[in-house]
Amino acid sequence: MSKKVQYTLEYPVRCSPTILYEFLSTPAGLQEWFADKVDEREGMFSFSWNGSVEKAQVIETEIDKFIRFHWLTAPGDEFFEFRIEKSEVTNQTILVIKDFAEKREVADQSQLWEYQVKDLFHRLGN
After folding, report:
1. Is 77 helix (H, G, I), strand (E, B) or coil?
2. In what order do the strands lie in the sheet with 80-86?
3. In this predicted structure, what is the pLDDT of residue 124?
4. For the residues of 83-116, what is the DSSP string, one character each?
5. What is residue 11's predicted lDDT score, i.e. its pLDDT?
6. DSSP label at 4?
7. Which domains, ranges and CATH numbers included, belong to the chain?
8. Tens digit of pLDDT for each residue in 6-25?
9. What mean pLDDT comes out for the span 29-38?
10. pLDDT at residue 90, as a whole number
11. CB 81 within 8 A of CB 97
């Protein structure tokens, strides 16, 4: 199995970091755009898509700044992260997503994130 590579996606978003963080870090918020059903217990999130369940643990978080998850089925050094940054030039809020994928699958995975983020923006009224 080839080693996965980390890739980063950035999306400008028109909403406050506080509201955006709610959509990135709470079961109710994530269920709006990321998965069909989301449950959380003591930092362990269960994400359901079409009846299959994947579990991820929160490994690091800073309120209104970022949240980093680790899939339980992934190697220990892999994670996916939602980070909220502010452009110093335009003062615009930027959603930064970091994830891992096989090198040949980065384009497909990026497209999947693009689809998910469009759903998020729709929920946010962007």
Report:
1. coil
2. 5-13, 93-101, 80-86, 66-71, 52-62, 44-49, 37-41
3. 93
4. EEEE-TTT--EEEEEEEEE-GGGHHHHHHHHHHH
5. 97
6. P
7. 5-25+62-124 (3.30.530.20)
8. 999 999 999 999 999 999 99
9. 97
10. 86
11. yes
Q: Across all residues in the chain, what is the average pLDDT?
A: 95
- CA dist 80 and 58 (Å) reads 10
> In angstroms, how far is CA 82 from the centroid of its own chain?
5
How confident is residue 2, by pLDDT bands cut at 50, 70 and 90? low
CA 8 to the chain's CA centroid = 11
Take residue 85 and report the two structure tokens written for it.
């940054």
25-31: Cβ within 8 A, 24+ apart: 25/61, 25/67, 25/82
Indicate whether 3 pLDDT > 70.
yes
Cβ neighbours around 101 below 10 Å, total: 18
